[in-house]
Amino acid sequence: MSDSSFMALTLRGFARAFSKALLSERTAALPGFLQSFDPRVRVLGLFSLVLAAILCRKMTVVAILFLLATTMALASCVSLASLAKRVWIVVLAFTGIIALPALFVTPGDIIFRLPLLSLPVSAQGLQTAGLLLMRVETAVTLTTALVLCTPWTHILKALRSLHLPAEVVTMLAMTHRYVFLLIETANQMFESRQSRTVGLVTGPEKRKMTARTAGVLLSKSIDLSHEVYLAMVSRGFHGEIRLLTDFHLRARDYAMLMAFMLASGLAVWMGR
Amino acid sequence: MPRVFDIQEIAFDYEGIPAICGLSLQVEQGERIALVGANGSGKSTLLRILDALYFPGSGSISFHESPLTQNRFHQDGDFFLNFRRRVALVFQNPDVQLFNPTVFDEVAYGPLQLRWSKEDIVRRVGETLESMAISHLKDRPPYRLSGGEKKRVALASVLVLDPEVLLLDEPTSTLDPRSQSQLIDLIQQWRGTAKTVITATHQLELVEDIADRVIVLESGRIIAAGTPPEILANSELLLKANLIHAHRHSHDGIMHSHPHSHRHGHHEHEP
Amino acid sequence: MSSILPLPPRDTGMHIPDGYLSPSTCAVLYALAASGWYAALRRVKRAFLTRVIPLISVFAAFSFVVMMFNVPLPGGTTGHAVGVTVATIVLGPWGSILAVSLALTIQALFFGDGGITTLGANCFNMAIVGSFAAYGAYRLLTARSATGSRRKVWAAAVAGYLAINVSALVAAVEFGIQPSLFHDASGSPLYAPYPLHIAIPAMMIGHLTFAGLAEAAISAGLIAYLQKADPSLLRGSARLAPGIAGATVIPVGHPPERRLWLTVAVLMVCTPLGVLAVGSAWGEWSAADFSNPATRASMAQASGNQAPPAAVPGGLHRLSTLWTAPFPGYAPRFIRSAGFGYLLSAMFGVGVLAVVALLAQIAGRRKGRTPLL
User: Fold this and answer.
1) ipTM of this model?
2) Which of A57, C3, C53, C213 has a CA between 20 and 30 Å from the CA of residue B46?
3) Is A184's Cβ below 8 Å from some Cβ in B?
4) Paired strand residues for A110
5) CATH 3.40.50.300 fits B3-243, yes or no
6) pTM of the predicted model over 0.95
7) Which of A6, A55, A128, A217 to mutate to test the interface with C (most CBs of C within 10 A)?
């Protein structure tokens, strides 16, 4: 691996984070299916479907949930290409590799043997690998649909009205906000160092540089937190946390919530 | 004119290092003051003391004859909220001031802390966003704003409370020329009103436009005070305060050096 | 490889996705995590008062970004650190629990890195277990050493390495118990498909090598940097919360606690020795031992060559049917190596004790002790 390619990898990671945020902002503004419902309904409904996918014991039912998730995502202006690239292929690469040995290792009734290596594939192995993969794909499709169609602040406010403590919600909001500032800062630091790494050859030197960047970022973060505190106090913060929520449930929101609950319940029952 | 701030011989240490020493200052209502000094001269610190974010180790500071002490702020909730509404500070780094998830939330933050009703908040925030021409940004997160937009949101977030005193810390640093001039226009609007504006800056070219009184700081002390023309003409003073420099440059093809600042394009040749 | 396949924002190391753990496992771990979060929030609020929100949030953002760094490792590879060690050293274990949990939540919810049903598990493994492991190791190794000493640097490395591997071990156990506890009628596992004797080595190999080294490298490097550039961050909470009247400072060297940690660690490690003891401990016999000729012989030997009674003593028989310990014979059936079973049971026991102690503290509302631990 060349001298600065570890930095290039990190920089690419940063760029991906920004592109995800941008895609989410754009998609949430589009007039799609999910976007038309109250954020609380979206959060509760999609979480309940994830739970259903986990509770289900039958691969076929999970597959139906997967199709449902995909249909909702597509109806909410999420492109098939986005889903495939950001969700399905990634999960396949990660969980697929993990699940693969299960085909051969799980004890049970052998269905066939792989021609070259004569590895036995059991029915149970097939079942377990398939179920695992299907579950993960379904769950990630559902959460991705939620996050792409809903602004982060709405997700947090929905969680707040579902009784997550105000401090936790505020901290999640502030953490999210400053993640992007710190990514930008780290981005600048790495980019400026990238042009100066001609001399960096040894592992220890590269590690030292990485740690030093993290160190500078840490000092800046602590200083930033002090300033933010002063800014908060300056505008009247005195320990109480107050949030402004503006959600109204209409008839169609209730109907959609019922639909979500019914679908989840049905899936769990059918897949028991 | 009622006296807004009365500071008597204050001293302040930041983590053991003296930042302000033996400073006294009186501010009348409606004044527009420019605090000038190089970086590290104590301008920001003084502004924070004025905003009761830091409290001096010795000496006293009072606001409309009410002493500003840490105890008072901790114990008297009404006084705390009252002060926070009437005195506002715009930080130099807007990212510090924009800690809420969206622009709307940011501008609504002050009124929320002051326990306004929801209807009042929504109405007032809408008005303020309109007046700063940033209504189209109301649902944007701060990391998707440009420097100029951030500054406008920061201003909006304090103006929403209609404060009596505005403390501005290097308001035009990091701004492009157009945003800078818009900001200066805004500050000039307040001339003759009851608003008291104290601006900390090291950019001398702004001083004439935004202030009637100039106070020069150096190493945490006031070394001079006067009207803008008086102060700006005093090159020796400005050089001492590290506000102007004297590097070699040329006029009409002749290389020389004398004290100058790069304001309004530097064409005059002073012997 | 990343040009062909779109990789997730970071290589998903220990972040368990949805579907790998059963709902009941998730529920238990969520409960454990929630009690940890609750305890942490209370302590951190007491220590930092109104500064909690900006301090922990911004630190969480920092942790998030550090998790994205590709740390160059020996052999030309890179790994990702979790940053739990630095968080623990600077904020204390409770602050670290909150900051790292916040970062993990944003990773899971916003970036899809880690599941939402498994968020409790991930926070428990990395933020809670990780913080305490790092804290215990770091304090043990740096007791009574000066702020600027070299010892702090390699202690941070060791603490980081240990913390990651302990987290990985806990995660591996969570995976490994899935197949035997949750399978369908035909025997196929419903969640994570590998039993303990595969899950543990598989998880540990990746972490003993890459993730552990990455954490060690970042932790050591950061401490070394801070010693020169910003040493006040290593000296306790005064730097984190300036201006708070009576801001408490993390105590340096606290002998009674250190002895406790040490004793527990030694006991944990020694439990496999129990396997080596010849025969069974006197008195710890089950009802079945009375009818088995082999054990009868060892009972006689242990009791000074007196033959045991022919029938099971009445009282023992009645009591033995009352309670079947979750780990009968101290080792769950599906573990091959008895020694490892002992170690797991011991760790489980310690974990239960720790949780009970935590809950007791919350209930008793102990005041007046140093807030950071």
Assistant:
1) 0.93
2) C53
3) yes
4) A122
5) yes
6) no
7) A128
